[in-house]
Amino acid sequence: MLFGHNKQEDAIGMIDKYPLMNDYWADKRVDMSKITIPAYVLASYSTALHTVGSFRGFEELPSKEKWLRVHPTQEWHDLYSEACTEDLQRYFDCYLKGEQNDWKQTPQIRASLLRFNQDPIVNYVFSDWPIPDTDYRKLYLSGDAQLVHDLPRSSQTFSYQSDTPSLQIDADSEELHFSHKFTARSYLVGYSRAVLYVSCPNSDDLDVFIQLRKADASGKLLQNINIPLEHLELKAEEVATVNTNKYLGPTGILRASHRKIDYEQSKPHWPLHSHFEEEKVPRGQVVELTIGLWPTGMAFEAGEQLVLKIAGHHMTLAEFEPLRGGFQTSNKGTHVVHVGPEHPSHVVVPFVSV
C-alpha cells in the first residue's frame, strides 16, 4: 500500500464494518445523470476493474453527445496508441478549442469483436449501446453437458468440489463445462446472463462463478492475447498467462445469500442484486440464481464452440503472477447444479447481426 500525508478510507475495514449495502456504499455509486457535458468513453472487455463501469457509465449518461469506443486490446496499450491519441485529439479540439472539424460525424458506437484465433474486427459501427435488435437466445444446460435450444426432457445433476484451491492460470480443476457448437458464423455482443439452479449439502451459502469461453472446432479452449505479438516482441507461447496479457471470456459471480434482485435498478439486459440483506440457503435446498456476465464481443465461425464454465473459484486470470492463488471464497464442500424440466438452468446470450 502507498501512504500519503493525508487520511484515506480503509475499504477492507469498511467491508468488515458494513458487509451489506447501505448509505455508505450507495454514496460510492456515481450519479451519472449529473454529467450533462459531452463524453468520450473508452471500454475494453479484458480489464478486471473497469469493464462494467465503462459500459454502464455510458448507458446512464444523459447527454446525446456521447461516444463509445470498445477497443480489442489491453487498456493501457490502447490508451497510449497513436490511433487513440489522434482520435482523442479530434474530440478535444472540437469541444475544448471549438474547432469545426469532422468529429461530430464520428459514429457514436464503435465496438471491437474478438476472434481469439484470428485478428479482431476493430471499430465495427453499431447504432446504439446496448445494440438494438439484439437477439437474446436461451440455451439450456442439458444432461449430456451441452447447451441446447430446447428444454431437456429429463433431469440431471452435476457437481464440483467448491473449495479446491485455484491459481487462476486457466488450468484449475473442478470446473463444469457445457458447450454449444455453432452451425453458422455468429456474433455475440453485449451482456449475457445465466439462471442456475444450485444446492449445497455442506454449507448454507455458495459463491458461484461462471464464465463464457470460445473453443475451436476440436473443443480446445482459446485465449485472446490482449497485445499484438509484434508489439510484445514475443511468440504466443512466451506470453505470460495473466489477465493483462490474455482475455479468456466474460465472467459472472454471485453469492447465493445475495441472490435477491433489485428490480428497480436492474435493466432488461443486466440483473442487479440489492445486497441489502442476506438470505442463507438451507443445506441441500435448491435455489435459483440469476447471474449477470460482464459484456463481451466474440465472433465464432461455423464449427466453433461456446462453452459455459461453472466453478467455486474465480476463473478470470490473476492480474499479475504474485496474485495467483490469492482470491479467496467462503465455499465449503460440494456444489450441485440441477438441470432439466423441473430446474431449467440456462444461459441467455446476445446474438447480433454484423
UniProtKB/TrEMBL annotation:
GO MF assignments: dipeptidyl-peptidase activity
Leader sequence segment: none
Record domain Xaa-Pro dipeptidyl-peptidase C-terminal: where: 89-348
Domain of life: Eukaryota
Matching Pfam families: PepX_C
Name the UniProt record assigns to this protein: Xaa-Pro dipeptidyl-peptidase C-terminal domain-containing protein
Species of provenance: Cyphellophora attinorum
Organism ancestry: Eukaryota, Fungi, Dikarya, Ascomycota, Pezizomycotina
